[in-house]
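Write out the bound-state structure for adenosine-5'-triphosphate.
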Amino acid sequence: MTVSLDTISTLAQHRGFVFQSSQIYGGTRSAYDYGPLGVEMLRNVKDSWWRSMVQERGDVVGLDSAIIQARKVWQASGHESVFTDPMVECTNCNARLRVDKLEDPDQCPNCGKRGTFSEPRQFNLMFKTHTGPIESDENMVYLRPETAQGIFINFENVRRSARLKLPFGIAQVGKSFRNEITPGQFVFRTREFEQMEMEFFCHPSESNQWFEHWVDARHRWYTDLGMNPDNLRIRPHDADELSHYSTGTVDVEYLFPWGWDELEGIANRTDFDLKQHIEWSGEDLSYFDPETNDRFLPHVIEPAAGATRTTFAFLIDGYDEETLASGDKRTVLRLHHRLAPFKLAVLPLSKKPELVEPCEKIAAELRKRWMLEMDVTQNIGKRYRRQDEIGTPYCITFDFDSIDDHAVTVRDRDSMAQDRVSVDRLVDYLADRLD
Ligand code: ATP
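---
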C-alpha cells in the first residue's frame, strides 16, 4: 500500500523509532535521534548489510576509519574543490534551494513567488572545524562527508596486514556529515547520517564483470530483506550525470511517497581515488601481482548506501493497514524478522502473579537470543495491535491453561495464525523461524 510521509513520520515519532533532534528546543531539521525501536532497527539494517557484505563472503574485510582525517584527504579526493551544489536563495522568504532540485527554475517552491531567486552560488557541503585550541587556517579540518576516502587511504595498510590478494573489498559503516542546503523528507536527507560503503578492488580488465556482480548482489540484498521488488529499481546514470572519473554508475532507487529517489549508488570509480592519493601523499599504492609479475593500479567498484535512508525505506515498505473479518482495523509493520526491532513479545494474559512470574522466566531465557519486550498492560487485543504496529514477528501468550499444560500460544504477526507450543520446545520453534 502507499503510505504518506505524514503517517509514517507520525508513527515513527509516536512509537519511538525516530525523534526530531533537539525537539525540546524547537527541533532542528539537520538531524534526527533514533529512539528505543529506531536504534534497534537501524542496527539491524547495518548488521544485515555487514553480514551480507563481510561475514558471508570470503573476499571482503571491514574497517572503521576516523571521522576527522587530514585535510589533504579531501583535497586529494576533490571534495574541497568540487563537492559543491549550486544554490539559490529566495529573496522573498530566504529559503535556500538546490538549483538541480527545482521543478520550476523561476518559482520558489516554499513561498510560491516568481522571479525572486538570487544568482546561483557554489556551496561547499563539508562541515569545517579546527583541531587544537587555535582557530587558524593551518588546523582547519573537515568532518568526513563520506566513509569511502577512509578506505582508500588505508588500502595499503589493510592489504598488507590482512595479506589480501586481488580481488578484495573493504567495507565500512559509519557517520558522515554534509551541510545539505535543503535537508528534508524526514530522515531521507539530513546533515548528519550513516553510510554503508564498500570499495571492491580488482584488476582493471575485470571491473565490468564485478560491476555487474555488485549491482545484482545489492539489488538482491533489499529484496531478500523483504522489500517489494515493484518499489525498487536500478537506474543507470545518463552520460551528463556521471562523475568525471566514473565509467558507469547506477542508482538503486526506491519508490518513496514523493516518487523514485536514491537509496544507493553503485559506481565504477576506476583508479581515480588511488591515483589521487598517490599524487598527493607520494606513497606508492600500486598493487604487485606475484603470479604475473605485473604492477598496476586496481580499479574500484563502489556500492555506497545510506543506513538511515535505507532504514526509512524499509519502514515505509513494511507499512500496511488492513480491515479484519471482525471489522476492526489494524496497522502492521511487515518487517523482515532480521530488521524488526523486537523479534518477540511475551504477554501474560493477565497481571496475576501466577501468569506474570512464569512469563518472566520464559522472557529471561529467550532474551539470551532475541530482543524482546514483555508487556503486561491493557487487554490482550490492544497488546497484539501495538506489537503489530511496531513489527514484532511473534507474540507469545501465557494464559491460565499454560500453568497446567506448560504450553504457550505463539501468534504470527502477518497471518495472525496461532500455534500452541510447549515451553520446552519454544526455543527450537522460534529458532526455526527467526535465525
Ligand atoms: P543525493 O543525490 O541524494 O544527494 P548522493 O548521490 O550525493 O545523494 P552519495 O554520495 O552517492 O549520495 O552517497 C551514498 C548514499 O549515502 C546515498 O545513496 C544515500 O543513501 C546516502 N546519503 C547521501 N547523502 C545523504 C543525506 N544527506 N542524508 C541521508 N543519507 C544520505
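---
The longest helix spans residues 36-55.
The pocket of adenosine-5'-triphosphate is lined by residues 146, 178, 180, 189-190, 193, 195, 262-265, 304-306, 308-309 (CB under 6 Å).
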